[in-house]
Amino acid sequence: MNSDRSTGFLDNLKASACIHCGLCLASCPTYVETGNENLSPRGRIYLMRAMDKGLIPTTENSAIAIDSCLGCRACEAVCPSGVRYGELLEETREHLNRSVHRGWKESLLTKVFIEGILAHPERMEIALTPARWIKQTGLDRFLPASLREPLSFIDKKRPAQESLPSVSRTTRATQRGKVALIVGCVMDVMFRETHRSTIRLLLNGGYDVVIPQAQGCCGALFSHGGNMLEARRCAIKNLAAFEVSDLEAVVINAAGCGSTLKEYGTLLGQDPKWAQAAMAFSAKTRDLSELLDPEWIEWKPPQFGKVTYQDACHLAHAQRITEAPRNLVKRVAGGAYVEMPESDLCCGSAGSYNLTQPEMADRLRRRKTGHILSTNAEVVVTSNPGCLLQMRAGIHAAKRDDIQVLHIADFLAAHLPD
Ligand code: SF4
Ligand code: SF4
């Protein structure tokens, strides 16, 4: 057992903001599922502060409650005391990374698969090749269900990988300026067509779109796991790649990346060279839904039956954006729109959580699938690649492949005028 009594890893001002009122408990997916105070925001904050003050040692056991946190930040969004839970979580995870020895399986998953492959589009493309071959040849049907299910989200056909145009100019009469698109890592490999939809939407909205070529991973895959050093490196690479002064906005279509980009100012706040540029970059960052007014575009009539919407946690809770995407979806779907129960409760994807905490991820996925089925929707719309894959896997497991889960950009683009 490792034990590290090093203290003072938390920002005291942030940590002491919690008044233990418990108002966040009902919003916390792991508490809602288990009823266990240790797996609630309040319980985790007690634990963080006790480790920070050296009242209990930092061990594998104390890491369990922190590891099981989704980082969904639903607690932060409802906290009357303004506790910045996401930052406390990152500080604690950074401390755990320094202090607790992880087994080889966990290290392999985090260091090799998540940080070594997922965060690098070119490596991910290579890693997906054998999985696509198994799907294409139909060999997946001979695999046990536990291996078949994760493959269910991989498109049989190799997705079109033609490069995205580095500059696209709008032909709309009303011109709204130039925006720069962040293409990301997972999004760019697995959802490049969604980027094409995003560009078409922005052009129809009156924006010129540029894609700076020197950009890279936003850093979310690192910061969510407490690897703040690498997260800062990613941020600096992007700051160097984007000249934001002549942009209307830096636009992002993945909620998890969007919250990280909007927090570059905090991430690099102590960096004398980059702090100012980071603040300027974050101030310019907008989710796609924030940049489109539903009335700017002549949408086609609804192309689907009933449509529902799942809030991506990092859009709803971290960025507090719930109305803008809903307004777009409602405008396009008209009377076919239906709200989903618990639409703002995490689906269990939470970045790489479904890989590192499969049991809780599966419980939340089944809960979410039940709510999707209760709406009788034909289409579920959301704003984050992880949520898409998680809900598709849930729907596949429920043998309801007739239900589509679409990124909001693809859903809206299906209704653009010809
Ligand atoms: S995090 Fe906020 S809502 Fe939760 S117990 Fe602390 S003060 Fe209350
Ligand atoms: S981030 Fe999410 S899972 Fe973690 S304590 Fe807050 S509400 Fe619970």
Brief summary of the model shown:
With 418 residues, the protein is α/β, with parallel strands linked by helices. It has helices spanning 12-15, 29-34, 41-52, 60-67, 74-78, 85-99, 104-118, 121-137, 145-151, 186-190, 192-205, 220-223, 228-241, 255-262, 264-267, 275-284, 288-291, 313-316, 323-333, 353-356, 358-375, 385-397, 408-413; strands at residues 167-168, 178-181, 208-210, 249-252, 285-287, 307-309, 379-382, 404-407. The protein is globular and about 65 Å long.
CATH architecture of the largest domain: 3-Layer(aba) Sandwich
Unreliable parts: 1-5
> Into how many domains do the coordinates divide?
4
How many helix segments?
Answer: 23
Intertermini distance: 63 Å
Cofactors, ions, other ligands: iron/sulfur cluster
CATH class type of the largest domain:
Alpha Beta
Strand order of the largest sheet: 1-3-2-4-5
Largest sheet: 5 strands, mixed
Class by SSE composition = alpha/beta
Portion of residues in beta strands equals 5-15%
Overall outline: globular
> How many β-strand runs?
8
CA-based gyration radius: 21 Å
What does the average pLDDT come to?
A: 90
CATH topology of the largest domain: Rossmann fold
What share of the residues lie within helices? Answer: 40-55%
Oligomer state of the chains in this structure: single chain
How would you summarize the topology of this molecule?
Blueprint (H helix, E strand, L loop, with lengths): L11 H4 L13 H6 L6 H12 L7 H8 L6 H5 L6 H15 L4 H15 L2 H17 L7 H7 L15 E2 L9 E4 L4 H5 L1 H14 L2 E3 L9 H4 L4 H14 L7 E4 L2 H8 L1 H4 L7 H10 E3 H4 L15 E3 L3 H4 L6 H11 L19 H4 L1 H18 L3 E4 L2 H13 L6 E4 H6 L5
Parallel strand pairs: 2-3, 2-4, 4-5, 6-7, 7-8
Antiparallel strand pairs: 1-3
Helix pairs in contact: 21-22
Bound molecules: iron/sulfur cluster (2 copies).
The site of one iron/sulfur cluster (SF4) has 14 residues, from helix 3.
